[in-house]
Amino acid sequence: MSDQLIRAISKDGHIKATAVSTRALTERARQIHKALPVATAALGRTLAAVSMMGNALKEDGASVTLQIKGGGPLGTLLAVSDNQGNVRGTVDNPVVDLPLRPDGKLDVGAAVGHEGTLTVIRDLNMKEPYVGSVSLLGGEIAEDLAAYFVESEQIPTACGLGVLVDRDQSVLAAGGYLIQLLPGAGEDVIAKVEGSLMAAGPVTGLLRNDPDPEAMLRHALSDFDLEILERSPIEYRCYCSRDRMERALISLGPEELQAMIDEQGSADLTCRFCDNVQHFSRADLEAMVRGLQKKM
């Protein structure tokens, strides 16, 4: 089954919810970054989260960036989603390897770290992007994201994220959900949501049984009658191009470009988000220098 995103609302009007299945795109990220399991799990959770946040933006060209700096050995986690929920991401140290937790699960919290921030950047094609940041609670990402919505946007939120890694380090299941209270929902609704989520169990267990995010959401919110508003495919999608990389080189200026020519003779640029490598020959670089000098 291809990766999917669904959006839903409860028929009583008390909650809205989004859910994603992201096994394929998480496996793509693992292969690109050659990530070991704990990095795969952390990056996969971040990608699932930002996909749901990005899809909530309906403006063409809008995007959401989710950055997590926890002070742990993974370094910075960075993921970006377009307004359809397609994502790309990176992690500073993808080959971090840590012992399993006492319960046998990957120790994502220790790998991410507990002392740092979760930052959300929404670019709505306006003069300045919206930036919100909260202190990390535990580095497990789902609870940190729920805290962000409560603190920065005053939206009571439940978040579940999970990545299940096989013995060969490939991704068996990945995805998550965001459940948010709508105005008018009272304490009884909160208790109902909490009870339903507790009974449903972990995200990875739900997706292992059925990779359809609708099935996961209906299990997670079994006490509610849901109406599905949208279902759309999502994927790992990078927007890098040779032109963008060329503009990055040009931005260095003629002196740095000339130094690059003198020292290296050419340049190979690799996209930080994907495995796209572009080669710029000596002639390419010299043409950039001439073009910049003409403008001076």
From TrEMBL:
Post-translational modifications reported in the UniProt record: Under oxidizing conditions two disulfide bonds are formed involving the reactive cysteines. Under reducing conditions zinc is bound to the reactive cysteines and the protein is inactive.
Keyword line: Chaperone, Cytoplasm, Disulfide bond, Redox-active center, Zinc
Record organism: Dysosmobacter welbionis
Protein name per the record: 33 kDa chaperonin
Family statement: Belongs to the HSP33 family.
Superkingdom of origin: Bacteria
Cellular compartments annotated: Cytoplasm
Main subcellular location: cytoplasm
